[in-house]
């Protein structure tokens, strides 16, 4: 393999983005970082570097184990990257998912009295008292 591979091509190859143009766009919009610095899509990556990707609300981090330029099957991806995302970042994702329970589908109308009591009870357990104060 060559000395380096373009970051946009590598991100697409290890299935972190669906298309190479999505990976390039993420680089252009400063959502892909190496050593805390935004990078251009043409930057070449090397083995051992840690790539951070901001996908709100989490910043995922991956260590490059091996370079690859062609799209890989999902089962081969662990050979090329190691997930080194800090536990605090993954907790942010869990908190965001937990907060989504109160969202009602469009057309469902207002909560019934029982549903409202259940929601208030759950919010009280989470420490978010007075969620429905008028």
Unreliable sequence segments: none
Biggest pleated-sheet summary: 5 strands, antiparallel
Number of strands: 7
Describe the global form: elongated
Q: Give the overall average pLDDT.
A: 84
Major sheet strand order: 3-2-5-6-7
* Number of continuous helical runs: 4
Helix-strand category? alpha+beta
The helicity comes to 25-40%
Order of helices and strands: EHHEEEEEEHH
**What is the C-alpha radius of gyration, as a whole number of Å?**
20 Å
Strand content: 15-25%
Distance between the termini: 64 Å
Kindly list the characteristics that best describe this protein.
single chain; 134 residues; alpha+beta; 5-stranded antiparallel beta sheet; two-stranded antiparallel sheet; elongated
What does this structure look like?
The chain has 134 residues and is an alpha+beta fold. 31% of the residues lie in helices and 19% in strands. The protein has helices at 7-13, 20-28, 87-99, 113-125, and strands at residues 5-6, 32-34, 37-38, 44-45, 50-55, 58-64, 81-83. Strands 3-2-5-6-7 form a five-stranded antiparallel sheet. It has a two-stranded antiparallel ribbon with strand order 1-4. α1 (7-13) crosses α2 (20-28). It starts with a strand and ends in a 9-residue tail after the last helix.
């Amino acid at each position: 393999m060559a000395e380096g591979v373009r970051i946009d091509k590598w991100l697409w190859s290890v299935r972190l983005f669906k298309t190479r143009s999505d990976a390039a766009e993420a680089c252009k919009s400063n959502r892909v970082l190496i050593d805390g610095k935004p990078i251009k899509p043409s930057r070449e990556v090397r083995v051992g570097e840690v790539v951070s990707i901001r996908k709100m609300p989490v910043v995922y981090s991956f260590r490059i184990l091996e370079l690859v330029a062609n799209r890989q099957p999902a089962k081969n991806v662990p050979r090329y990257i190691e997930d080194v995302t800090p536990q605090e970042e993954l907790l942010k994702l869990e908190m965001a998912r937990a907060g989504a329970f109160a969202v009602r589908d469009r057309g469902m109308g207002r909560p019934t009295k029982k549903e409202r009591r259940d929601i208030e009870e759950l919010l009280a357990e989470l420490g978010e008292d007075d969620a429905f104060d008028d």
